[in-house]
Design a protein that fits this description.
Radius of gyration: 22 Å
Helix content: 55-70%
Largest sheet: none
Strand content: under 5%
Low-confidence stretches: 1-6
Order of helices and strands: HHHHHHHHHHHHHHHHHHH
Shape: globular
Distance between the termini: 58 Å
Mean pLDDT: 92
Structural class: mainly alpha
């Protein structure tokens, strides 16, 4: 019997892709309220490298107060982008991010679909639907590079262990934007010495390039500007989903979380790297990398909501590395995605330091990214504890009743 095109499973999948893309095209404009502001600052930095590198951290756009805040190597990478006409530059930024998004999903789902073929239609449909996730749509609308860096790190860290130069992409990513340095910690605690050496050498090379291009500017950046969080924006703003942002909103101290923040960061790094090491040793490598990404997000003085693209591999990790996710994959996946699509962090009053007057319920919603991902990390840790407990019990039973 001929059921037409809908009778072919392959064609049904492509019809699903078409339906998802239509739905996303209808819904996405409701969350698309930016004009590539960050990309404009990137282009400003690239233009400064080409004209006067000494002005990299002082030049401003007339209509955007934000300065360039990345290392000099970041400006070098952006130099070619500054030569493109704005429409072409913004279009290229979106296209590159879309490719990176597909790569992130492909690498993340590789473990979930282990031994099974992931149909291209399924990959495209999931990638398209994820455009509605708030960190993803914000990255695209701002012209940010978060998706590209996430894809590079996943490709490098999760790649074949014997691949030549493994770790170098991580070092380059850290040279563009410092937050990937946290993944050096994962290589360290899992004793991946060759990859760590490659990453360190690549990062040192990016630093050296900065000193070769503009020695005084590089010295100023690494000794002074690197710790100047005032250049990044209002720390109390609800878009700052980090421990520092939470403590500022909680205490009302606009200068930062102070010693309490430093203590929380120390505990988070220690606990996070322990969990990452445990997950890596259990074979849950995607989860290990995702938790390491969380360490950087939690501990950075500023982690804007668009930095949180790591919720994609973390969400997949919940399905592969926790009993809850393995038992109820669809509800967990839909709930996780929906929460980051709805983005509760934007529900309470914001801007003008209104965040300092939040009540308990508003604070719960306004810091939602922290609580959701902290709960995910605890679930991953709990699953490891259960596994170790089961192994100890099995060993005791074997010792008590040897065959």
């Amino acid at each position: 019997m001929n059921w037409g095109i809908l009778g072919d499973p392959g064609k049904r999948r492509w019809w699903l892709v078409a339906g998802v893309c239509v739905a996303v095209a209808v819904l996405l404009p409701f969350g698309w309220d930016h004009t590539g502001a960050d990309l404009k600052v990137y282009r400003l930095g690239g233009a400064a490298i080409l004209s006067d590198p000494s002005s990299l951290y002082t030049t401003r756009l007339r209509y955007i107060s934000m300065p360039f805040t990345y290392p000099i190597f970041g400006g070098v990478v952006m130099a070619p982008v500054s030569l493109l006409p704005w429409p072409l530059a913004y279009g290229a930024s979106i296209a590159t991010s879309l490719v990176a998004l597909v790569v992130i999903w492909k690498l993340s789902l590789k473990q979930y679909f282990a031994g099974r073929r992931l149909h291209p239609a399924v990959l495209i449909a999931i990638s398209a639907a994820s455009l509605l996730i708030e960190p993803v749509r914000e990255t695209l609308s701002y012209g940010q590079i978060n998706l590209l860096l996430c894809a590079l790190i996943l490709y490098d860290v999760l790649g074949p262990k014997q691949r030549f130069g493994r770790g170098a992409w991580l070092g380059l990513a850290a040279g563009i934007k410092l937050t990937p340095l946290v993944f050096f910690g994962l290589l360290l605690v899992t004793r991946q010495w060759k990859a760590l050496a490659n990453a360190s050498a690549a990062f040192a090379g990016t630093v050296a390039i900065g000193f070769l291009i503009a020695p005084r500017t590089a010295y100023e950046y690494w000794t002074n500007l690197i710790s100047d969080t005032g250049r990044i924006g209002g720390l109390a703003y609800s878009g700052n989903q980090s421990w520092n942002g939470f403590l500022i909103r909680l205490t009302g101290d606009l200068d930062g979380g102070g010693r309490l923040w430093q203590l929380v960061v120390l505990v988070t790094v220690a606990a996070g790297l322990w969990l990452s090491r445990d997950l890596w040793r259990r074979g849950e490598e995607l989860a290990a990398v995702s938790v390491t990404g969380l360490i950087g997000l939690f501990c950075s003085p500023v982690s804007w909501s668009h930095h949180w693209v790591w919720v994609i591999p973390l969400g997949v990790s919940l399905l592969t590395a926790t009993q809850l996710g393995r038992r109820y994959p669809l509800p967990v996946a839909l709930s996780w995605s929906a929460l980051f699509m709805l983005a509760p962090i934007w529900w309470p009053p914001r801007r003008g330091n209104l965040e300092l007057s939040w009540n308990f319920v508003q604070s719960l919603a306004g810091n939602a990214y922290l609580w959701l991902t902290l709960a995910a990390a605890l679930l991953l840790a709990l699953d490891g504890w259960r596994e170790r407990t089961a192994m100890r019990t099995a060993r005791r039973d074997q010792a008590a009743f040897p065959h």
